[in-house]
Amino acid sequence: MTEPLLKVDALTVRYRLPGGGTLTAVNEVSLDIAPGSVVGLVGESGCGKSTMARAVCGLEPIAGGRIEFMGAEVKKLGMGRRPAELMGIQMVFQNPYASLNPRRTVGSQIEDGLRANPETVSWSVADLLREVELPADVGGRFPHQFSGGQRQRIAIARAIASGPRLLIGDEPIASLDASLQARVAVLMRKLALDSGASLLFISHDLAVVRTIADEVAVMNRGVIVERGTAERVWNDPQEPYTQRLLAAIPAVDGLGTLPGLDA
Ligand SMILES: Nc1ncnc2c1ncn2[C@@H]1O[C@H](COP(=O)(O)OP(=O)(O)OP(=O)(O)O)[C@@H](O)[C@H]1O
User: Which GO molecular function entries does the Swiss-Prot or TrEMBL record give (predicted)?
Assistant: First the structure.
């Protein structure tokens, strides 16, 4: 059996509350991600998905359990204060401005990613822009000159440029127009897998997650309540919480009926 790329074992993360006391945001959660796979993490707002992602990047203190990435333990502040990027993890956030510097051209930011890539790659900024379905010659523009959907695709290009082994999307489609959400999610899967990375795709939207994930983990109140192949969780949910999430989803069109990515 292949060793997992990421191994989260009984992870617990707690926050100190301002008025005293603590909140257990992630409670003994275990989750493995295999190399070259896409795992969806779904659950309602506040269930602990982002906390889990931040802990994987070494950005949260770990109250219990263990995280291993590529065989090495991840501790708070990253391994010896190495940022997640150096460990080979890249995150794409809900708000692309969290990943992009509004004062620098998008080309120069993608170039930073290419320079940080530990492998010698033959891709150029133009290649990456093309990969995210943008014109190859827009590298000289600034983030504000793009639509929200285009900015998010630039953030994905920037993340992929640095050659991560694990790409984490923390609600990366939540701020996009509904008609674009599935297309951007599909693109993210394709780029991650084509570049040899695994993808942890975090979303509250089980319908979209199901279209791109091999496996789905369902989280509720800090605990993973159900895990299985995307098809199994979608067609035959075992947990009442998952059944409620599914019942709340309106009928979904096939991906083929969705419009293109020009917005
Ligand atoms: N820095 C913090 N201090 C105290 N509590 C926090 C902190 N960050 C998150 N929380 C709380 O921890 C719980 C889990 O939050 P988290 O952001 O991980 O959930 P989530 O599932 O990602 O939700 P969302 O999609 O809304 O971000 C929530 O109750 C949240 O209010």
Answer: ATP binding; ATP hydrolysis activity
